[in-house]
Amino acid sequence: HLLLGYLLVVSAHAEFRTWTRNDGKTAELDLIKVSETAGEKTGEFKMRNGASVNLASSSLIAADVKLLADWKPAAAAEAAVPSVFDKFLDNDLIRLSGKSLKACKDATKPTKYYLFYYTASWCGPCHKFTPSLVEFYNKHKPGNDQFELVLITCDDNEKDMEGYAQEMKMPWPQLKLSKTERFKKEFKHPGSGIPNLVLTDTSGTLLKTSYEGANYVGPTVVMNYLATLLKK
Q1: pLDDT, tens digit (0-9, with 9 covering 90-100), for 65-116
Q2: Quick one: which of 117, 144, 153 has its CA closest to 133?
Q3: Cα(20)–Cα(18) distance, integer angstroms
Q4: Model pTM?
Q5: Is the peptide bond before 195 cis (omega within 30 degrees of 0)?
Q6: Residue ranges of the alpha helices (H) in the chain?
Q7: According to the 3-state scheme, what is the secondary structure of 169-180?
């Protein structure tokens, strides 16, 4: 049951993701608060137009019921420190909104880590890996300012980028195609093969990549390493 309100909610670090009701209808919402009445959890969400909406767990699909149950209020936010990546990312990020990539105004400037995802629509192994990364991001990112994931495309046109983002329901920001070559030349992250995940701190120091020397160990190793860091 969808209850629409008119309360304007202000959030400094909005984290919009797709939530799905039992009837199949979806919406891009930012989970603000969870309450419980008579054993049922209800989420209070912010809509992109600023209005609020409440969704009971009984109205959601099973995967979103779990997200609602696992949600915890964010701890007092740490101040995001200036990053070596700021001048390369500021005002140049896009994110899937509906069925198209649009300017991303709500990307988090993380307090600790950046996770860069080098990938492409034409890459078969990327298609196999990306769903697990989507699951990871949707599980760990809401309310968490410690990290942000930014996709660095290896596609050569925006239409392919958009189709790939739609197919995989990518929730994260990605760098504009016109800015990727400059980014790659500046940071020269290890590895030429994809899918490639690169984990750094905000100063640009490499913490983990899909390569150990010349050996490709894969992106799952990096994703799991970040998961351990987020538990500390």
Answers
A1: 998 888 877 654 455 568 999 999 999 999 998 889 999 877 778 999 999 9
A2: 117
A3: 7
A4: 0.68
A5: yes
A6: 62-70, 86-89, 124-140, 158-168, 177-187, 219-230
A7: CCCCCEECHHHH
